[in-house]
Specification:
With 108 residues, the chain is α+β, with helices and mostly antiparallel strands. The chain is 31% helix and 23% strand.
């Protein structure tokens, strides 16, 4: 699920110019193994994995303060990227809940 500045942008919460993509994945052994095998990332707890794909930095989160993945994912918004691809992104309510919990803004 997309979080961070893209969820802020797509929810029309103020002005932002995303510099990277923040992705929140469900914390599971299978996801950890996929990221380790595919990108050499050893994801655990609060550490943030980073992958550079061409010129784009992708941050991978297993935890987001103040939110539970299952609930946020089931209430996420959907963005159609093209005919074949749609992505879920953090709802405005959950974005604001997270910002209130950590009492700081993400990278914008």
């Amino acid at each position: 699920m997309i979080i961070g500045s893209y969820s802020k942008l797509w929810n029309n919460i103020g002005t932002t110019y995303p510099r990277d993509i923040d992705i929140w994945i469900e914390e599971s052994d299978s996801n950890r193994i996929k990221f380790l095998e595919s990108f050499g990332l050893n994801l655990s707890g609060e550490n943030i994995g980073q992958v550079i794909i061409r010129t784009i930095k992708v941050n991978i989160f297993l935890m987001v303060d103040g939110l539970k993945f299952e609930f946020a994912f089931s209430n996420a918004n959907v963005r159609q990227i093209n005919e074949e691809l749609e992505v879920k992104y953090l709802s405005a309510e959950h974005y604001i809940q997270n910002i209130s919990t950590i009492q700081e803004k993400w990278d914008f």
